[in-house]
Q: What sequence folds into this?
């Protein structure tokens, strides 16, 4: 059985970040390299996060743009992701 510290996070993990409101193209450019989808009054930002510092940078950018953060979730690795 492998044990890991609570703060352990693998590198290059895919995250799904949801913000309230449908952001426009100009705001979407702030998340270059990530997939941005609009759905039911929310924006879903999905992409690879290199490390915790990168994740915090994305969250800081969301805050700086005045967007309301709804959720941040790591995307579980599935057959499609593992095959990459």
A:
């Amino acid at each position: 059985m492998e044990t890991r510290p609570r703060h352990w996070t693998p590198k290059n993990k895919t995250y799904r970040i949801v913000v309230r409101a449908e952001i426009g193209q100009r705001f979407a450019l702030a998340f270059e390299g990530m997939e941005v989808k609009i759905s039911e009054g929310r924006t879903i930002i999905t992409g690879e996060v290199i490390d915790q510092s990168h994740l915090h940078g994305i969250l800081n950018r969301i805050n700086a743009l005045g967007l309301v953060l709804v959720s941040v979730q790591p995307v579980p690795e599935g057959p499609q992701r593992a095959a990459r």
In short: Residues 1-5 have pLDDT under 50 and may be disordered. The first helix runs from residue 25 to 28.
